[in-house]
Fold:
Amino acid sequence: MNSGPGRVLIGLYGLFALAASARAGVQIATKFHEAPLAYLLSAFAAVVYIVATVCLAVAGRTAWRVAVVSCSVELVGVLVVGTASLVDRAAFPDETVWSGYGQGYGFVPLVLPVVGLLWLRRTRPVPVGRPTS
Amino acid sequence: MAPGPAVPSWPGTAVVVASLLLAAWALVATVRKRPPDRAQLIGVAVVELLAVGYVATAIVEMAGGARPSALAVYIGYLFAFVLIPALAAVLARLEPSRWGSLIVMIAGLVMSVLVVRLHQVWTGG
Structure:
């Protein structure tokens, strides 16, 4: 799972983990009171990206399961926050990674979890050396 | 504090031109199912050198009293700017297949986007 196209995904997820963490860190450190909800979501997105990056890079069934969960959470997050940021602009006065379905990042945050889940479906671990019961 | 005059544009232009050329070259390799070749790694090294040159220019500007509109964000971007070509080179070496070339291509695109972002963060635009 952690080679071939998987490495491209790990690189992209790592990049977004870095971007989201840095953005959330600056937002929370300098202007948390302005939009606590948006900035907490920024931080949450950062954590999800970090978990996904690590679990895509690590082999094993548990890592695979956690990667599926984090990619799913990410897909739901970008859809919910993307919609919410368009419907209720007042609650999202500042950009987060997921605002406007990730348009500030070329919509990559919207495409990434879909590609991630497709890749994980192809790399579903099969029990090795274990009798099937 | 009002943002000072922007960092001279030519180091940024140099990074954009080099990284887009690199991205195009790596895209051709990806389509042809070729692993990253020597030319790509030299290209990454050139982009990295130009990025270091850009950062040096920015540091000289800031030492001269000029300030970006958001200093912490700008410095964060500068770090990412010099890290990305290096990380891309490591990942590309780990992945000697067409996917390594795709990594190089993405890094090239990200570097040109970062030049634009650095300029925006400096001017506050």
